[in-house]
């Protein structure tokens, strides 16, 4: 849990200022590929959060593990925000 806690970051720490300019330099095929990768991650982040909330957190009784899963749920929320 403590190692995981040390890796905490927020959406505001990510500088997206250059992204549009970079996006416009990509070919249509490259943009299509990246859109599909992002769609996959957007969907899978939701699945991960659902599993953490409904399965692991209920089944695991070790306090440190429960703290880890709670923190992981928060991190997944930040991932989906960015």
UniProtKB/TrEMBL annotation:
GO terms for molecular function: oxidoreductase activity. InterPro entries: Ferritin-like_SF (IPR009078), RNR-like (IPR012348), RNR_small (IPR033909), RNR_small_fam (IPR000358). It comes from the Eukaryota. SUPFAM superfamilies: Ferritin-like (SSF47240). CDD domains: RNRR2. Gene3D superfamilies: Ribonucleotide Reductase, subunit A. Pfam families: Ribonuc_red_sm (PF00268). GO terms for biological process: deoxyribonucleotide biosynthetic process. Belongs to the ribonucleoside diphosphate reductase small chain family. This is Ribonucleoside-diphosphate reductase small chain, putative. It comes from Perkinsus marinus (strain ATCC 50983 / TXsc).
């Amino acid at each position: 849990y403590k190692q995981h806690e040390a890796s905490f970051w927020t959406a505001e720490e990510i500088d997206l200022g250059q992204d549009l300019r970079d996006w416009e330099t990509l070919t249509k095929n490259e943009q299509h590929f990246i859109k599909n990768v992002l769609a996959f991650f957007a969907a899978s982040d939701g699945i991960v959060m659902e599993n953490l909330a409904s399965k692991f957190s209920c089944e695991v009784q070790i306090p440190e593990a429960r703290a880890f899963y709670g923190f992981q749920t928060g991190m997944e929320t930040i991932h989906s925000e960015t």
